Amino acid sequence: MDETGVAEREMAEPLLDVRDLDVTFETPAGVVHAVRGVSFALGQERLGIVGESGSGKTTVGRAILGLIPKPGRVTAERIRLRELELSTLAPKAMQSVRGERISMVMQDPKYSLNPVMRVGEQIAEAYRLHARAGRKEAERRSLEMLEAVRIRDPERVFHAYPHELSGGMGQRVMIAMMLIPGPDLLIADEPTSALDVTVQMQILAIIDDMVKERGMGLIFISHDLNLVASFCDRILIMYAGRVVEQCRAAELHRAQHPYTRGLLACLPRIDGERAVLETLKRDPAWAS
Amino acid sequence: MIAVRDLNVRFGRGRMAVHAVKDVGFDVPRGRSFGLVGESGSGKSTVLRAIAGLNPRWTGEISIDGEPQGPRRASSFYKSLQMVFQDPFGSLHPRHTIDHSLAEPLKIHRIRDREQRVVSALKDVGLGPDFRFRYPHQLSGGQRQRVAIARAMILEPAVLLLDEPTSALDVSVQAEVLNLLAALRARHNLTFVLVSHNLAVVAHMCERIAVMNRGRIVEILEQADLRAGRARTPYTQQLLTASRGYDREAARRLVEIHAA
Predict the structure, then answer these.
(1) From A226, B44, B179, B244, which residue has the greatest number of CB atoms within 10 Å?
(2) How far apart are CA A167 and CA A183, in angstroms?
(3) Which tens digits make up the pLDDT trace of A12-48?
(4) What residue spans of chain A are helical by DSSP H?
(5) Is residue B139 a contact partner of residue B130, using CB atoms and an 8 Å limit?
(6) Could you report the predicted ipTM of this complex, rounded to two decimals?
(7) Contact (Cβ atoms closer than 8 angstroms) between residue A167 and residue A106
(8) What residues of chain A lie within 8 A of the CB of B171, using their CB?
(9) Which of B11, B12, B26 shows the shortest CA–CA distance to B194?
(10) Which of A195, A266, A269 to mutate to test the interface with B (most CBs of B within 10 A)?
(11) Of A204, A225, A270, which is closest to B227 when you measure between CB atoms?
(12) Measured between CB atoms, does B170 come within 8 Å of chain A?
């Protein structure tokens, strides 16, 4: 079966099905409607969510994980992970979904890792929490995981503190920690935006291989349209809390929505000859 | 306009010493735009800060408009050279109005007609006079960066040093700011040195581009060569490949390249 066929079969029974997701925040200045009626289904594929700052892309990821703090309000007709309805799940039950069924990798490993705990212990803890394994078993699995994310000297890194690692190494450790419980779905929120382009490529290759080998679904949240187009299978483009366009990544250049077209046009290109970059004329109708 | 020879910058002492910039040299004629591109830790911002006089511990030669520069600069130096920084949230005083921030360089240099100059500097960057009485938190990221550019331009310098001027901005705002910078350069015959990690930004903005790796310039390319992908060194080739987007095969071939 070709790739499209696989995606379509998966979509018949999606891994994740989100319908009519709304997130609002009450602020002294009034209600902020951060996510408005977002619906999408995810199979065993790499789905990119692209948008500029404030578009709601990160909020979508957090809402799926039940990580919207009060006074934020999340409503949805459905947030279904295979057989499990997440939108009505009790906080305690949600706790065991996080990590075990859905994991999240964030932008900067410096803020996501505990600075006073050796990284190996942090990975082992993630494993023991979900697998109820002994200390020895957890350590062995952690070392295997560090090797899987292509860390050359797993023993040394296992005993290192986060500040002793570079950004790229820290992000590998984060990925190891997020994948060790064997989740069905990985949400990666700008996982490589703090990294140099060559390191970014290596980290993406690790995520790519892991998603393929383990048959996971991936939601890849990013502001970088070209990166998402080259990395993902399918793309959602968000603007002002809404999905304004969905397309196959390979067909991004044929995007229809004026916002998507505008975003593509205003990027400087290495091989570009344009003296003046196109700028985006925002239409209030896009947000309504 | 700018000549740099054998520039070396070291931080720290003894065993902890870091040799951040090694034997860097380049020339930028008046009215031209020169790019410094490289990954984090390559020394590109350190070169810029040495030219700006923000880092007094360097050896080598730096001359601006034919004048050799020492480690410290007289205040008159900054009438001819100004700098724009990456983070528009960090580079404007949060409790000063835009008017206050823009008038400050004029006060330091005892320049009259401040009100008129502030208004025309704002106009030059596409902001109306009503922005004078706002505070930075009332402005978007793009507007703040315009204000930072207006502040750099208000002394009518001949040289602008730009350190990742659009890296903190959304791409649609980046396009506006890059267009503004290009228009200002043409209007005032400015000389630019632009530092960025983004190859597309320097390829768009700069006529000559130096690629840095681990403190050294590995090669200097003409704009047309960079645009056509004609890089001579493996390091630049790799940087170009990685900048084009994700490619599983290319990721496998990536190697760590150490500058000699």
Answers:
(1) B44
(2) 24
(3) 679 999 999 999 999 888 899 999 999 999 999 999 9
(4) 3-12, 57-64, 91-97, 109-112, 119-131, 135-148, 154-158, 167-179, 197-214, 225-231, 258-265
(5) no
(6) 0.85
(7) no
(8) 52, 223, 225, 263, 266-267
(9) B26
(10) A266
(11) A270
(12) yes
Give the Å distances, CA to CA, from A214 to A185, A206, B200: 10, 12, 35
Q: CA nearest B247 in A: which residue?
A: A230
Instruction: Give residue B247's Cα distance to chain centre.
Output: 30
What length does chain A have?
288
Q: Dig out the tokens for A185 from the structure.
A: 């779905």
- Do A201 and B251 make contact, defined as CB atoms within 8 angstroms? yes
Say whether residue B226 is in contact with chain A using an 8 A CB cutoff. yes
Chain A residues 211-250 with a CB less than 8 Å from chain B: 223, 225-227, 229-231
CA A162 – CA A165 distance, rounded (Å)? 6
Question: Which residues of B fall within a CB distance of 8 Å from A226?
Answer: 245
Closest CA to A107 of A35, A65, A63, A170: A170
Name the one residue in this structure whose structure tokens are 């550019």.
B149
Residue B252's pLDDT band, with cuts at 50, 70 and 90, is: confident
pLDDT, one tens digit per residue, over B41-53 is 899 999 999 999 9
Q: What is the pTM of this model?
A: 0.89
Q: Which of A229, A273, A279 sits opposite B172 (nearest CB)?
A: A279
pLDDT digits (tens, 9 = 90+) for B64-109: 999 999 988 988 899 999 999 988 888 899 999 999 999 999 999 9
Does B200 reach chain A within 8 Å, measured CB to CB? yes
pLDDT in tens, A234-287: 999 999 999 999 999 999 989 999 999 999 999 999 987 778 999 888 888 888
Q: Which residue has the tokens 């002492």?
A: B13
